[in-house]
Write a structure and sequence with these properties.
One of its GO terms (molecular function) is ATP phosphoribosyltransferase activity. Keywords: Amino-acid biosynthesis, ATP-binding, Cytoplasm, Glycosyltransferase, Histidine biosynthesis, Magnesium, Metal-binding, Nucleotide-binding, Transferase. Pfam families: HisG, HisG_C. It is an enzyme of class 2 (transferase). By secondary structure, the protein is of the alpha/beta class. The chain has three domains: 4-89 and 180-210, Periplasmic binding protein-like II (D-Maltodextrin-Binding Protein, domain 2, 3-Layer(aba) Sandwich), CATH 3.40.190; 92-179, 3-Layer(aba) Sandwich (D-Maltodextrin-Binding Protein, domain 2), CATH 3.40.190.10; 214-279, Alpha-Beta Plaits (2-Layer Sandwich), CATH 3.30.70. The chain has eight helices and 15 strands. The strands form three sheets. It has a six-stranded mixed sheet, with helices on both faces. Strand 2 and strand 3 form a beta hairpin. The radius of gyration is 24 Å and the shape is flat. The structure holds adenosine-5'-triphosphate, 1-O-pyrophosphono-5-O-phosphono-alpha-D-ribofuranose and magnesium ion (MG).
């Protein structure tokens, strides 16, 4: 039987969320701690546990068909590799930073300067576009220490909360790109495996849509129903069921999880009571 071959990070920031999203898609796999290759138990899929930085080459060579990988790594090393699903986790930026005492006014600061980074292609591309030429020092980790030990005048690295920069006396001065985990596809994927990919994409969409949504149930007096329903932008229109108590109804609907916080006060003011908000596991529109 043909199986789709997926690469996921062996260990690191993407590992757990990658396994979790497959699990939410109903695909159960081993966590890769001992085995570097595993077969899914209930989907035509083989999983390869690899270093994140090695994955673009495997995709280019067609050794794996798809991968869960940071968009930033695809931009750095994955020329010609496309993706069509953003997965909503591992959100970060790739930024330029300088010591906090530097009076930074523009990108011209970097002209002729030394920049330490694990993302040489991204930095070179960015600076070229701005007409700046700098000296790039490639280092594979602990990049933020480079200015402190006299190795560089600035750095380019991943920034999320900004706490690593702060602790190392640096400040972010340019955001070069924003990234999150994506489902990348090998340009060499076969037609047969593309069919399996379509099934997987359908399941991922259902999981991602559900993650954005909440199932809301509330009770309301019948004479307030119109107002309450107008506050609830649902999938189609809310379900309204009579309660045992005369003159009251139960209203059920699905709303975007952020939207809920915007309307909660208005719902209460309009007379809604006993409001329940529940997670949704899968959602097919
Ligand atoms: N602080 C962070 N916050 C959010 N996402 C991050 C952060 N650091 C990294 N990422 C994202 O997670 C991905 C994996 O990061 P991680 O540090 O686990 O791997 P790595 O050490 O770069 O790779 P490898 O698997 O090759 O050792 C990055 O490529 C990036 O997309
Ligand atoms: O803005 P922050 O929230 O501080 O996150 C940014 C840091 O996170 C990543 O390192 P990680 O912790 O993955 O360590 P690594 O260098 O060993 O990969 C990245 O390389 C930064 O150093
Ligand atoms: Mg890291």
């Amino acid at each position: 039987m043909t199986k789709i071959r997926i690469a996921i990070q062996k260990s690191g920031r993407l590992n757990e969320d990658s396994i979790e999203i497959l699990k939410n898609c109903g695909i159960s796999i081993d966590n890769g701690k001992d085995q570097l290759k595993a077969s899914a138990r209930n989907f035509p899929m083989e999983v390869f546990y690899l270093r994140n930085g090695d994955i673009p080459q495997y995709l280019k060579d067609g050794v794996v068909d798809i991968a869960i990988i940071g968009e930033n790594v695809l931009i750095e090393k994955g020329e010609g590799i496309g993706f069509d699903v953003r997965l909503g986790f591992s959100k970060c930026k790739v930024s330029l930073a300088v010591p906090k005492e530097v009076k930074y006014s523009s990108i011209n600061y970097f002209e002729g300067k030394r920049i330490a980074t694990s993302y040489p292609n991204t930095v070179k591309g960015y600076l070229k576009e701005k007409g700046i030429s700098a000296d790039i020092h490639i280092i594979n980790g602990s990049v933020e220490i480079a200015p402190n030990i006299g190795l560089a005048d600035g750095i380019c690295d991943i920034v999320s909360s900004g706490s690593t920069l702060f602790k190392n006396g640096l400040k972010e001065v340019e955001v070069m790109l924003k990234s999150e985990a994506v489902l990348a596809v090998s340009p060499k994927i076969s037609e047969e495996r593309k069919k399996i990919l379509t099934k997987l994409q359908f399941r991922i969409e259902a999981v991602l849509t559900a993650r954005q949504s909440k199932y809301v149930l509330l009770n309301a007096p019948n004479n307030k129903l119109d107002k309450i329903i107008s506050l609830l932008p649902g999938m189609r229109s809310p379900t309204v069921l009579p309660l045992a108590e005369e003159g009251w109804s139960s209203v059920h609907t699905v709303i975007n999880k952020n939207k809920f916080w915007e309307v909660i006060d208005e719902l209460k003011q309009a007379g809604a009571e006993g409001i329940l908000v529940c997670p949704i596991e899968k959602m097919v529109l």
